[in-house]
Queue: 2 jobs
Job 1
Amino acid sequence: IKRITTNTLQKMKSQGEKISMLTAYDFSFAKTFDGAGIDVILVGDSASNVMAGHETTLPITLDQMIYHASSVIRGVSRALVVVDLPFGCYQGNSKEALISAVRIMKETGAHAVKLEGGEEILESVKRIVAAGIPVMGHLGLTPQSIYKFGTYTVRAREEAEANKLRNDAKLLEQAGAFAAVLEKIPAQLAKEVSESLIIPTIGIGAGKHCDGQVLVMHDMLGINTEFKPRFLRQYLNLNEQITGAVQHYIRDVKSNDFPNDQEQY
Ligand code: KIV
Ligand code: NA
């Protein structure tokens, strides 16, 4: 099978084929998603929430991201694997940003990194790209800045913030980013930005006009059932199914049904 590269994604945009992206954090799910044909796997710092149980993405460390990413990469033979640079290992220091990105590439075998922000992190983006590492941008509701926003509501509804986002998207493209995530912004703004950029946009809560879509695996599989924003389409209710299976197992153990004569040596 032919590997997905940043060039493949660019080609998909020019040919009008939408890009599919999901998060994954471990070997087994990554292997299943890759086998199902997903284009891009994001080792998101949402691992901080769905894997570690933190309230925000801020606590996860670079070492923890490297552990998740190296597990994911061992399950993948086709998808492009992108890894989030976590909070505190790139903001305000392009040298540290480069060192962090290099660690991810060397220690995990992943194919690209993702950074949140526009103009503020431009020097970091340029420096990482100059080192030969593909960079994905992330604009709109950037969860590492949640304490600045103070709310998880839709971003860039006001003209000033929308204009900054338009400008940031252009700057990221000019700095050499190969794609940009647009999170929780009005569909009309995402459409405009997607049309104005050569590089593909990947939306989450950003409407149908993005060049691709991304969801957090725990949300779309219904493992996490507390999080139900309007933009989420839930494809399974795994929490319910797993609860049923576990309760069935408990009953079987308690009733001496499991293991039976065929299930022993
Ligand atoms: O960490 C993450 O899961 C993400 C996606 C939601 C884009 O950054
Ligand atoms: Na993220």
Note: DSSP finds eleven helices and eight strands in the chain.
Job 2
Amino acid sequence: MSAHASPLFEPVVLGSLSLPSRLVMAPMTRNFSPNGVPTDQVVEYYRRRAAEGVGLIITEGTTVDHCAANGYPDVPRFHGEDALAGWKKVVDAVHAAGGKFAPQLWHVGNVRRLGTGPDGSVPGYGPMEKRKDDKLLVHAMTREDIQDVVNAFAQAAKDAKAIGCDAVELHGAHGYLIDQFFWEGTNKRDDEYGGSMEKRGRFAVEIIRAVRAAVGPDFPIIFRFSQWKQQDYNARLAPTPELLEQFLKPLSEAGVDIFHCSQRRYWEPEFEGSQLNLAGWTRNITGKPCITVGSVGLDSEFLEYMVKTDKVAETANIDDLLQRLNNKEFDLVAIGRVLIVDPAWPSKLREGRFDEVLPYSREALKQLA
Ligand code: FNR
């Protein structure tokens, strides 16, 4: 099957979200926004990927307005006039290039690191406190903390709509705050936010409902989740289809429009006895459109291809992906690392110019180009 004849590059309408193609840019932290404000370089970085055929740009995680939301240097904020003015330029540039745009709204929770307060110092408030020996003490969030964070997500989503974004993505994956509630490995609460799957999901449900109330019925809400955690790559949030259903149903009913199902390798079957991946299961359970992700264009055969120019191996991977898309296992395909290295990857795939694809290298993370 050739990529240019594939629905991957055709427009698609998913509820209230119309996209020029089914290719999505995966959210990737880049640390190039000093003082939390996206620069003109950030504008050009996203614009270029949209111009090359990415239908939906999902931004790097951008923090909601809560004192402990950020954990890393030079991560963009999604609050404050300066940061929102920076994002407005990105939105306009992506739209001018024909793409659609969704910020990924983020709170890192207890993954927060030392020295990352708003002024570069360690904060002495919020869910973290500094001890005399410079260690951070983490306390379980109070009901007031929870309400503050719910409100912060809702405000960010409202602001996203106001500056012309086409959707928002809520970062519920990879062991950050929302996921810290989901996962038994981090949720030690014995109140209404801890214990059963339903109770562990309650924080996310409250955020989704608040976001829905803030943006109205027709503004798309994308929700990203994962089995794996940065604290434990082998973690399984929902080890059986039944538990996955218990996990997803309340989120879906609370108002999620699209699920972004984060896997490290998209081709891995989620449960025994079926070839379906996480997106496939999620689509079947919820009936909602799903995004798949994970090493598209980056599997070991592909890397080998890069070295030996063995086109057969590469084409097999893309063929498998397109086959699954045709089989409606998922609706959209997100790509991450290939896009950091090679902004023109979508065009090269569409035009079959495999020999021009740039090889992946971690060196590429050092600059924003
Ligand atoms: C990521 N990823 C990620 N995920 C997320 O939800 N929010 C984020 O801010 C980031 N940041 C980030 C930075 C960098 C440098 C990388 C490489 C990855 C995960 C990313 O969205 C994606 O799920 C994985 O990279 C797998 O897709 P690829 O890269 O194999 O196509």
Note: Residues 26-29, 60-61, 104, 171, 173-174, 224, 262, 293-296, 298, 335-337, 365 surround FNR (CB under 6 Å).
